[in-house]
Amino acid sequence: MRRVLTSAVVAAALALAVTACGNDSGDAGSAPGGSAAPAEVSGTVTWWDTSDATTEGPVFQELIKDFEAKYPKIKVEYVNVPFADARDKFKTAAQSGSGAPDVLRTDVGWVAEFASLGYLAPLDGTPAVDKPDEFLPVPAASGKYNGKTYGVPQVTDTLGLLYNKELLKKAGYDEPPATMADLKKAALDVKSKTGAGGLALNVDAYFLLPFIYGEGGDFVDVQNKKITISSPQSVAGVKVVEDLITSGAAVKPALQDSYTNAETAFKDGKVAMIFNGPWSNADNLGGKVFKDNPDNFGVAPVPAGSAKAGAPLGGHDYTVYAGSKNLDASYLFVQFMDSAESQAKIAGKLGLLPTRQPAYSASDATANPKIAQWQKPMESAVERPWIPEAASLFQPLVEGYQKLAGGQTTTEPMLKDVATAYQGILKGWSL
């Protein structure tokens, strides 16, 4: 069964992360070295980076230069692969045994799948798993499969409610909405009082989860091998979305490239609120209404439904291809890129949340106020099921969501169709 990160647990973990002092001298958690002395390792490491090529890629390329300076005998071939294409592209390359990268920036929901197919090298006992006691436990869990480590956590995240403070203030609100009912009211007030849209929705399955979680629903119950996407709780959650659309509280969703459309509308000041994650910080702060007024950019937890406030736990892991011809260099590359120092630099420049506790107290990270702003949203993060089929559960749901948003269906029949599709994915699971 999925585990829910309670406010107390995550608050304690993140409080420790923010206040902890890094222990650079201790090596109790360090993994043993590779088969060759690090200074003698040579060769080329191909890295597929699935981050945003414009706002995030340049920062990772800066770190690559630092790595190559530390290990002059190792050359890194950097390839930015669009996130939407990366899962299928890697599976095709790994299956054929040709063209797969040595290292892949893997979505946390892909690790179990790739490991179950034999595409990933186990990392326990290698330099890639360095100082594991520094990792926050839930992000670290995403890299485990059948008791072995196949991924080390690069960044962690969740969804929050991002809002334009000035637009909400013009509509009469000094604080962002805390419940889904308040979200609807605030969005309608923004629409009527400012002329801007109240809320823009991203028509994607991942972004539907806060509504489902808010009413106590979920994809599946892993412990009991039960499909729960069409349960009364999940139905109630999706009905909240359906009402936001039909009431006009949400602007008419774009069915194609909805992420870019919602993001652009928000950073241009055309809508007051969207759901998004810390990966969008840099993009938003470069937008028309926030570039010269960053304090206008607000971050809050997703509004609560009748059961709770909940948003999916996300993030990315570094993984190593099982067929890599240069494993020693790949392990060293992962070790360097995932160090507390590197994580702190990424946090400071991009606002992405570290997975190592000491990174939160590093000066690079504390210099970025967005890191602290995301602490509260992280308290309502819900751990996703780390099963090989997890990534495949999104496509039927996004197809159903698109039909719902386009007015071609309603909640109950849509979720029944999704549940039927899940039966074809999760063999032997009950409804």
| Count of separate DSSP helical elements | 19
Shape: globular
Sheet of most strands: 5 strands, mixed
What would the CATH topology of the largest domain be?
D-Maltodextrin-Binding Protein, domain 2
Mean pLDDT: 91
CATH homologous group name of the largest domain: Periplasmic binding protein-like II
Number of strands: 15
Quaternary state of the chains? single chain
Strand content: 5-15%
Q: Please write the CATH class name of the largest domain.
A: Alpha Beta
Total count of domains: 2
Structural class from helices and strands? alpha/beta
**CATH architecture annotation name of the largest domain:** 3-Layer(aba) Sandwich
Based on CA atoms alone, the radius of gyration comes out at 21 Å
End-to-end distance, in Å? Answer: 15 Å
Major beta sheet, strand line-up: 2-1-3-14-6
Fraction of residues in H or I helices: 40-55%
Family: Belongs to the bacterial solute-binding protein 1 family.
Pfam family, one: SBP_bac_1
Protein name: Extracellular solute-binding protein
Keywords: Signal, Transport
Helix/strand layout:
Layout: H1 7-19, E1 43-49, H2 57-70, E2 74-80, H3 83-96, E3 103-107, H4 111-116, H5 137-141, E4 144-145, E5 148-149, E6 152-157, E7 160-164, H6 165-170, H7 180-194, E8 197-200, H8 205-214, E9 220-221, E10 226-227, H9 232-247, H10 258-267, E11 271-276, H11 281-285, E12 297-301, E13 311-312, E14 314-320, H12 327-337, H13 340-350, H14 357-361, H15 363-366, H16 369-373, H17 375-378, E15 381-382, H18 394-405, H19 411-425
Parallel strand pairs: 1-2, 1-3, 8-11, 13-15
Antiparallel strand pairs: 3-14, 4-5, 6-14, 7-11, 7-12, 9-10
